[in-house]
Amino acid sequence: MRRSLLLAGFIGLASCAQSIGPVVPPLSPAESNMCYITKRDPTTVEATITFYGWPDNSPPGNKIAHGIIHKHAGGDGTYCNPTTFATERSNNQRIPYGIKIYVPFLKQYFIREDDCAPSGPTSGSGSNGCFKLWFDLWVGGTAKSNKHAVIKCEQTLTPNGQVKVILYPRDGLPVAFPGPLYRNQPPPNGTCHGKREGPSLN
């Protein structure tokens, strides 16, 4: 699904186009009620982090390109229910569908279920897709969300420069504010990663 940040900062793009490339094998029927696990040694990398949500997906909504444990973008940021993220297809070998990551500055887990693509806005640093090692994290939102508040949350959370990300993280790392990064409550502007949103953007 495509998404775009509307003002300053990095812009990431997720696309619902048909997905190609490696996929982490799905769970067997015997494992279907168990926690989704990928058995690889953890690796720490430096990556660009941006965010997308319901209002700046394209089309607006929660569709994803390659669901692994979710039918739509979602998750609560825990090890067994990591939140959806996207990256560009050139990362398919290194960042396959189904890989889990842990983002230390957010203290949440994420899983690749979506693609970035060059079908985004005509200007901005993300206009050609998620360049190099770039993770576009699902922030949340619904059809009833204040779209300006969702985008403000994305911008507030977007770090300046690259940050540490753990690929194939172990279970048991601290999780802050389990649930969507953006939540509709309390009205009118909701909550962004545990903090009540101030006035939304116009």
Notes on the structure:
- With 202 residues, the chain is mostly beta strands.
- The protein has one domain (2-15, 38-196).
- It has one helix at 147-157, and strands at 2-3, 43-53, 57-58, 83-88, 100-103, 108-116, 134-140, 163-167, 182-183, 191-192, 195-196.
- The strands form 3 sheets. Strands 2-7-4-6-5-8 form a 6-stranded mixed beta barrel. A 3-stranded antiparallel β-sheet has the order 9-10-11.
- The radius of gyration is 16 Å and the shape is globular.
Brief digest:
This protein has 202 residues and is mainly β. 5% of the residues lie in helices and 26% in strands.
Features:
six-stranded mixed barrel; 1 helix; mainly beta; 202 residues; three-stranded antiparallel beta sheet; 11 strands
